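YM 10:42: DYW domain-containing protein sequence, as discussed on the call
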Amino acid sequence: MKTLIDSKEYKKALNLLYEHYDISTDFTKNMAIKACIRLHDYNEGHRILQKLSPTSLNDPYIQTSLIHFYMQSHKVDKACHLFSTIVNKSNPMYAAMFKGFITNKMPEKVLDLYDKMEIEPINVTLNVLFNACARIRNDRAKTIGKRLLEKNFNYDQNDTVVFNSAIHMLMRFRDVNIAEDVFHQMKNKDIYTYGTMIKGYNDNQEYEKALDLYEKMNVKPNEMIYTLIFNSCAQLSNDRAKTIGKKFLEQMPDIYRNNTIVLTSAIHMLMKFGDVSNAEHIFQLNREKNIVIYGAIMNGYCINHEPLKCLNIFNEIKQSNLVPDEIVFNIAISACSQIGILSRCQTVADQIPVHMQRQLFIQNALINMWGKSGSFVKAQQIFESVSNPNIITYNSMINVYGLNGMGSEAIELFKHVPTNERDDISYICALNACSHSGLLAEARIIFNQVPTKTEKIITTMIDCLCRLFLFDEAEKLIDNYEKTNSPYVVMYMAMLSGARNHRNSQLCGKIYNRMKSLFPDEKQSLISGAVLLSNVYSSVGEYEQANDIRSYQRKELGVKVKAGMSWTEINGELAQFTAHDHSHPRSAEIFAEFDRLAVELIQHGHTFDGSWITRPINNDETIQSVLCGHSEKLAIGLNLIQRPVPSIIQVTKNLRICGDCHSVTKLIAKIRQVDIIIRDANRVHHFFQNGQCSCQDHF
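YM 10:58: structure's back
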């Protein structure tokens, strides 16, 4: 019977017992109880218990098994009562109690019982104690865990399992250095030792150390190592991580190429690298796709800003007769947030089962989705339906108000968040709302309330000041920050953006030169800065300087400017446009419509503003023709040629809307008496039929 138990043939072990019950011994009964524990067959277990003799009930092995049985069947009181009646308590009995408390989510009771422990713990007990301390991680657990480690560890012993548990505990305590000391002093390391260390490094965001240890490993990697290293590489996504991760994947044995856990991590890694095609290749090769691997590819598309592909996979899941879980719905909601089109959002929201709609993280995601799609009303309805909002709920709703130009509402809600519950995101969302609504006094009050001013919080305040052209005050914040910290490129980008809006070419040049000096390797930021600088030079007629900057951008930086794109939905289909895009089947009608609109706009006093043109104008172009080809204008034009014209036009743009498009859209809404919603990279603009925008021109 023991042979069957050891080989995990639990059902056969029970059948053997039933066939020979009249001759079964305490040993075989004990084995049968163990089999019931492994099978989670509590009814059979209780039948066996009822037939145990008083002598059997006093057997220490059976007592230990009964503690396990009671704890696993969640009869904690019975386990505690039995334990209290035992006179000679052994380490396995204590270990059974400790493990049972952990199973029943009562880890503090492990420490309570340990304090009353009448014998010295041995390895089997230490292993469970370390796991309990790792779960609790409070001061008491840290004191007990470290004391046990110091008192009981002999580095010449061979119990690798206990060492691994100790390392796991220390990593959970964030005592990385002590964990490393234990690791280095171990005589015998197995694959799980390396896995515990690498996982600990990952949990403590020491991803480079994880790769260092992987490169020194002298054991063959298993499923755990592949998963962990792929995750380390995904988090870093630098050149070293890309080299290691892709090589590791290429060398991976075939036995892991249908392992869902490993492949999920590999897909996530490749998606984080931006290597979408190889991630898709791995996904397609997987023969037995489950909901987890579908979720991985969906999330990867969201990471790479391909929300339509994400929703296509979501539809494929339903066609495959798989049931989307909470994680998949959450990713689908995220994809809808990126698209920002109300009808798409509603389609996904309508499919969420009622029981999921009550889950807090789904509600938080829905608040964010509706807000980014321009429906602050629906976001508000979800928010008000949340029974126990957490700080993410509050932050999401504050952010929704800010995005939609409702700064006062954002501040009012921020005031209702208890001070001790606010986090960095709370302050950033509130300051952003002030910035987007021009509420300087309120921003100063909130900024002064911040207990610890992080670089992101300071950057948000700088953005607020620069939108109102208070550059001296913003510069003082940067100078004070840099007295104790390294320069932060985003702060300079906020100043540069504000200076561009102020058309202050001298200040723009000064800021950009400082950026080149401080951040020579931040190519993407330098590209964005060069666009802003050349743009401001053009706006004040300094065309030679503008051309010099564009030439520098092309020759020195060598990074392409991100192409502007806009999309809108017509009759259930998404249409996407780039600037001067003629790919749409109704392109001729769209451009003809804007030719007519241009005449109406000029009649209503609009002058096309060439300062928003960021490239040289060709001989066959005019300021008007260049500006009328912007992607958001083409998306609006497509809506205007529909019959009937939609009552609400909705456009999502991947970059910030330019000043000319903003002015034009206000006039179109007024002339054609249509509501227009444009979600750009920074905020949601609601253009009303009275010719006003919700942002009050704070964009």
